[in-house]
Amino acid sequence: MNLILHLLLDAAVIFGLAYIMPQVQVKSFGTALLIAVLLGLLNFFIGWIIRFPLNLITFFLLTGIIRIVVTAILLKLIDSFMDSFTIDGFWPALVIALAVAVAGTLIDRSAPTKERIESGYEALANVSTVSLT
């Protein structure tokens, strides 16, 4: 369920930023969903190959920044082999990568984890919101 939510949110972010930014063109929401799927697959299969040496060079101190830059590079790679998706320049790709990372972080932070549920934290949070209303 979390994967589907991530893909839909990534597609929405890409489609929304394409509407706002004149340097980015996306044909439809279906194309944005395909871009999100391709981005996830490329990040899984190729992204770690690019990220690992860069993280070694920076002694793993800039992991988040490197992840965003690699995502922007992968977006430009997707742009090169899709006709219905165009990014003019690297900076718009970096903005999209940053927005996708922020949206993913917000989803991951809001989703309850197994540890939080087992510790009773989620139950206590629900009780406190119910008692306040």
From TrEMBL:
For this protein, the parts annotated as crossing the membrane are: 28-50, 57-78, 90-107
**Domain of life (superkingdom):** Bacteria
Q: Where is the signal peptide?
A: none
* InterPro entries assigned to the protein according to its UniProt record, in alphabetical order: Phage_holin_4_2 (IPR007165)
Q: Which UniProt keywords apply?
A: Membrane, Transmembrane, Transmembrane helix
| Entry protein name | Phage holin family protein
